[in-house]
Amino acid sequence: MPATAPIDAVMQALAVPTRRAVFERIVRSGEITVVELTRGSGVTQGAISQHLKSLKLAGLVVERPEGRNAYYRARPEGLEPLADWMGHYGAFWRDRFADLRTLLKEIDP
Fold first, then answer.
1. Which of 58, 100, 90, 53 is nearest to 72 (CA)?
2. Other beta carbons less than 10 A from residue 22's beta carbon
3. With left for phi above 0 and alpha for psi between -120 and 50, is residue 65 left, alpha or beta?
4. Are 85 and 78 in contact (CB under 8 A)?
5. Which helix H or strand E contains 24, and what residues bound it?
6. Cα-to-chain-centroid distance, residue 93
7. pLDDT digit string (tens) for 63-85?
8. In this structure, is residue 14 part of a structural domain?
9. I need a surface site. Which of 36, 53, 70, 92 has the fewest CB within 10 A?
10. 98 is in which domain, residue-wise?
11. How many domains is the chain partitioned into structurally?
12. What is the pTM of this model?
């Protein structure tokens, strides 16, 4: 089986709405346990664990075991492949906004 490119792994991990919500909650919390993630989520602990596994494999979170608990925190550098990919389109958007600015000035000098 061919290795997944980092951008593919990140996009696949964040493509699932529940997984995105888990990731966002980790980001907001700084560091959080599976039990805390499960509480109030409407998702089983087993499902949360599977989502965490996908996020870890994509390099988006890291796990820190402490006693009987495992604490999860986001890895901001895990989003770099996505940011790099999006950066390639920055010129496209800058050009489009420049064209829009020109058009607006022509319409309403």
1. 53
2. 26
3. beta
4. no
5. helix 17-29
6. 22
7. 999 999 999 999 999 999 988 88
8. yes
9. 92
10. 6-107
11. 1
12. 0.78
